[in-house]
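Sequence in, structure out. First:
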Amino acid sequence: MPRISRRTAELGTENAFVVLAEVNDLARRGKDIISFCIGQPDFATPANIQDAAVAAIRDGRHGYTPSAGIDELREAAARYLARMRGLDIRPEHVVVGAGAKPFIGYAILATTDFGTGDEVIYPNPGFPIYESQIKACGAVPVPLHLHESRDFAFDPAELEARLTPKTRLLILNSPHNPTGGMLSARDLAGIAAILERHPDVWVYSDEIYSRLCYDGEFASIASAPGMYERTIVSDGASKTWAMTGWRIGFTANPTLAPIFTRWITNTESCASQISQWAAVAAIEGPQDAAEAMRASFLERRDLIVRLLNQVPGVACRTPGGAFYAWPNVTEACRMVGAADSEAFRKRLLAEAGVAVLADIHFGARVPGEGQHVRFSYAASKERIEAGVARIAEFVRRNTRAAA
């Protein structure tokens, strides 16, 4: 049998999909599972967006588009991104892709060279595809630790300590997956001041949850003086308009837009034309449904944080955005005799019928920060109440058994 490449053998994954497969398998076998593992809105895509897609199909808009996307979507996305960030973003700066995720790889490919020791700094814990793509692209991953005491922001001094002559790219994500943490305008101004001393470093700003902020206003590092030219602003349709399966992301940068376009030509050719017309309707149409989803997520956030903090051995900070909670379960692990959060996660699934993700699914544990699990609260209030009740009963039952 011919061998596969080492790059492929070592390629990471997104464990939310791995656990989801476990959940689906258990469900097929008749087990009642309450799942908090997948990060996607549980709402239907708004009707006006669906109607736009149907109209595109009926109008025969089925073929290839330019690799950078249809003009109408690039124009709409430029206005949308500019309005939220107070920037002069032009349509030619915007590139449309099959979701926002491919731009992670394109950004690394565009700013680093394979095997030369070029470094990429990324948040830890963080979206697992950051580290996976850094390695696959032949760059060196440099984790930047997020701290619970800072509401899961990082210490600017730690960022400065990690910047070296080999640093080519800094990845930021706010609101943040998996913790729900946010970087304030003040935080970002401090980061920009540090980067001013390192002019050769690009920034990839993952802002896919930009419309899901609850505590404070959304802020982008691209809005800091002099930063847009070196910042890759990445956003998309998936989270704001419940369009995960439509696969539409858009990224803006005045210098790298033509390079990203070339990468798309080499890989996906273009995003689905039907989905692109749907995204135009999403951006330019009524925003009532998007605002209603945000309001529902806020209610669910407050509910799940309150309930989790009533579970013995669990302490959960209030996330500022996205739709994730990142409770500390160090004491709960001790109480039930679980070696760590992954053992706790597996037992919750097997014994309580509750699916969550462990901290190790999002990078190596931050030293001294304890054990955490991630909940996606993109689930109904009834499922949240039932799921957390199961966890509380699991901890109480197993604590008594241990005693």
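Second:
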Amino acid sequence: MMDRNAFYILSLGCAKNTVDSESMAQLLHEAGYIRTENPEQAEALIVNTCGFIGPARDESLQALRELATDKRAGQQLIATGCLSQRFGARLIQDVPGIDGILGTRRWMDIVQLARRLRRRKNARPIYHLPESRTVGGDEHGAPRVAMQGGSAYLKIADGCRRPCAFCAIPLIKGAHVSRLPESIIADTRRLQAMGVNELVLISQDTTDYGNDLGMKNGLAQLLAKLVVAVPDIPWIRIMYAYPGYVSDELIETMARHAQILPYLDMPLQHGHRETLRRMKRPANLDWVRGAIRKMRAAMPALAIRSTFIVGYPGETEAEFQTLLDFVGALKFDRVGAFAFSFEPGTASEPLGDPIPQPVKAERLRRLMELQERISLQKNQEFVGQTHDVLIEGIGDDLSVGRSYRDAPEIDGVVIVESELAVGEIAPARITGALAHDLTGSKL
């Protein structure tokens, strides 16, 4: 039976979307709504969509269509997030049955939209797509966080001002907007009081934090404030650093404070200068090599994750081989890779999508096979060492968690031969290594 005050929310895509979903859920809860995991019981059916690349769009459209097909009288289907921001009214044509459209830039108006839909006099969809340039949430008192066990994602900014030719994020999110430091610190203090053990700082580009606030080296300044404000959160993790903006001050700040994990996610996208230029990405690979040497010298235990695109328009076999050589030389701890996805409206649109899909797939396979060999070699170096593990699940006399080298959901895990408390950080002796994961025993 449907509950008029219940809502169901499905979050798709990245951790940044998860934060928006949880923030919307909190606003709805404060307005008197009750969350349910059963869509049949909810009046408001919310899908926070991802529209970054083709497969993500397809997943979002499928989820919306399934809910639209099963929707009953009195239920309201609301599409929020990237897909709705980018395509707006087109979604109604693709998915008849959507009642409301809410974009990424005003997710904090979810209660207003739900109430408008409840009061509407006809079946026409309501579009709520104002172009407000905002990171959102602070003016409503909604923390910009999402909890997962002992970890919490904290969004410090939204949007992006980088010119990457392949990326639709600026079209979806708008320009970069930083949250005020005092608002971020207030959220972290609440998380500390809740017993969170890992704080994951996210935005489209964390190294651009504070630029719009007139801050120089804003991320380093924010980190220095956080370690003082929340001394009882043992792990602070940085995601999504932009090449060329990992400053000496940031490196020094990370190296100085034990709370800040020696982990950095820095998507580089390619290892050939001309490919990077066509991507409108930083093409100074000498800087990359020098910066990584500098970071590893300052933090010998540093784990570096990067992301690469294969099959970008114009990528020759020689350019791809240069990428393989680049990855083989720098030996990243973790690598994510994707085949190029053609995105209408981006700066790469005039280049088309000339590389056949089988060639993209074959290059992706070769790159990931290389990285698996590197990852296995890296993991084998940890056998016999003792590492702290943040426990995330238990069962059958085993615990599954993550070390400092593993970001939630995207990196490997550590399987510990004992049942430990979920959410705690426990030391474990590493006993075995796989290509992506480690095994260990409780001390």
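Remark: The chain has three domains: 3-128, 138-380, 386-442.
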